Amino acid sequence: MAATGDDASAMDSISRSPATFSAALAAGSQGDSAEDAAEILASVPKKPGDGGVETAEEATEPAEPDINELCTDMFEKMGIFLQGELTATCEDYRLLENMNKLTSLKYMEMKDISINISRNLQDLNNKYASLQPYLDQINQIEEQVSSLEQAAYKLDAYSKKLEARFKKLEKR
Q1: The whole model's pTM is what?
Q2: Mean pLDDT of 30-52
Q3: Degrees (nearest 5) of the Cα angle 139, 149, 134?
Q4: 6-16 and 18-29 helices, crossing angle to 10°
Q5: Residue whose C-alpha is closest to residue 54's, from 62, 43, 64
């Protein structure tokens, strides 16, 4: 991660005068205070172009929060997350259960309708079977009517011939 702002200029001044920085570190490690190290760094002569940085600031890390509090917080949030996931899953299963119930009701209705249709079809077949002798009689009557019609046409044709002969004989 690149340093920016004041940190970048402090690092730049440190990299330009490593001996001075080492002396400041040595003074700090020998039990001197951070103020003494800052004085050593401040006494370093400036070079042209070193950005006008006179002192280096001590980098401090943020205080670590209590690990137990973080774990407790994480477990609480994980519990809330898992509870939400389980609730959503339960709701999905309830929806599926309701859909299955509705579907089974629809299939039962369709079954009842098909049973009624089957029963009605069977009744119609029975009625047709009971009407079959009458239909056979109608077919026989139709055949007889057709033969009578043919006989009537022949009789009509014969009567026309007879009439024509009678007229012919009458004229003589």
Answers
A1: 0.42
A2: 53
A3: 15
A4: 100
A5: 43
